[in-house]
Amino acid sequence: MINRLFSFGRRDFASLSEQEILALAISSEEDDARIYKAYADGLRDDFPASAKVFDEMAEEENEHRRRLIEQHKTRFGDTIPLIRREHVRGYYERKPDWLVRPLGIEKVRDMAEQMENQAHRFYVEAAKRTGDADTRKLLGDLAQAEKGHESLARRLGTKHTPDDVKEEEAATEHKQFVLTYVQPGLAGLMDGSVSTLAPIFAAAFATQDTWQTFLVGLSASVGAGISMGFTEAAHDDGVISGRGSPIKRGLASGIMTAIGGLGHALPYLIPHFWTATSIAALVVLIELWAITWIQNRYMDTPFLRAAFQVVLGGSLVLAAGVLIGNA
Fold first, then answer.
1. CATH code of residue 145
2. Sign of the C-alpha dihedral, residues 60, 65, 68, 70?
């Protein structure tokens, strides 16, 4: 959540001039060429054929960069503005997976396809914001060059059939659902469930007043839901990242954040303190299990690792709340 707040200092993609769009494209191609080269180096010993493919892809990205620089020189001269993907709100990010060794071939293939899809969306949107015919043509050509699901699979030796295309379309639809609803909803559920543990249980053990504890939990849950919802909607308009409508993502994040906190706040409507606390603790366990299941089901996180991370984090926050409340 803190990282998202920093995105308010970034530029909106719609505010970029045509020169800045070209500069952003140049820096992005430079970064992607380096990443493909790193993939090639990491795969060379165990997967030499695939490494050669990524070497070629790095060269293609360098050729794209060269064409973009020539277009910039023709229109705007030799001085290229310094603008990178981290300067633009909602622009796709590159996680440093290429630094991890050894590289898994399936992981690399998935990341490369994702990179090509993101670059394709960028060039499509960039072309819409360009009035110069030559620049628009160049950006359109690069958009087609980056549209590489089929081409990448073919180059890596995978044969496509009509059934494969149907499966790919279904996978794309599923991925969009995850990006628009599951990912922000999961982030909200985790934030609401874990971050409210300390204030709710601290208030419970400090006052042993169930009504006051409920009011603390209600205010913390609703406040966190509003904050997470607005932050999710504001930090990324979804145009370049492909994460979908900011309103849908904001609602998913905000609602799930509030639900995550209210789950263990509602038991304190029960007047008896220890009964309410016991039920609240049980609800916390259910919430943590639900988060683990969602991570495993939709985010492909190994179940035991997800359980360890969620339970450890939740336990530490819960313990902090109890200790503070008893201080």
1. 1.20.1260.10
2. negative
